[in-house]
Amino acid sequence: MRCPFCTHEQSQVKDSRPSEDGAAIRRRRQCEGCGARFTTFERVQLRDLTVVKKDGKREPFEQPKLQASIRHACRKRNISEGQIERLAHSIQRQLETQGDEVNADLIGEAVMDGLKALDSVAYIRFASVYRDFKEAGDFADFAESVDEGDE
């Protein structure tokens, strides 16, 4: 593993432990060149996913991009980084069972389902961007339907 500080090629593993509910291994490493310590994660990847966008363009699936969009919807909510990471990993595993190519719509719906169970405000925030509301009334109707679903 290359050191992120000095790019030396050799490092020693100082500590390993399960992470993300056993879905990954967290390794604490020390560079043999500069002595700096850093952390790496090892995860199972079932397949390389390709996202098919609405315009037909294809691009590789990026888990950090998924996490960033979830994190943005959850901003200033009482949701931990661990909850965001677990949701993103859960969605990725779900997508990996669908095949090598997944539609962007499928990803958006999976995020909405996860956020709906996690936090209604984050769910509405994500939906307002994902569903691309054109008018305030569209947003109000959607928010009202969420409130009705909670009763």
Structural write-up:
It contains five helices and six strands. It is elongated. Strand 2 (24-31) and strand 3 (37-43) form a beta hairpin. The strands form two sheets. A three-stranded antiparallel sheet has the order 1-2-3, with no helix packed on it. Strands 5-4-6 form a three-stranded mixed sheet. The protein has two domains: 11-43; 50-150. With 151 residues, the chain is α+β, with helices and mostly antiparallel strands. Helix 3 (104-118) runs antiparallel to helix 4.
Topology record:
Layout: E1 11-19, E2 24-31, E3 37-43, E4 50-52, E5 58-60, H1 63-73, H2 81-96, E6 101-103, H3 104-118, H4 120-130, H5 136-150
Parallel strand pairs: 4-6
Antiparallel strand pairs: 1-2, 2-3, 4-5
Order of helices and strands: EEEEEHHEHHH
What Rg do the Cα atoms give?
19 Å
Number of DSSP strands?
6
Shape: elongated
Q: What is the average per-residue confidence, as pLDDT, rounded to a whole number? A: 87
Strand residues, percent: 15-25%
In spatial order, strands of the major sheet run 1-2-3
Percentage of helical residues? 40-55%
Largest sheet: 3 strands, antiparallel
Task: Offer a quick outline of the entry.
By secondary structure, the chain is of the alpha+beta class.
Q: Key features?
A:
151 residues; alpha+beta; 3-stranded mixed beta sheet; 6 strands; elongated
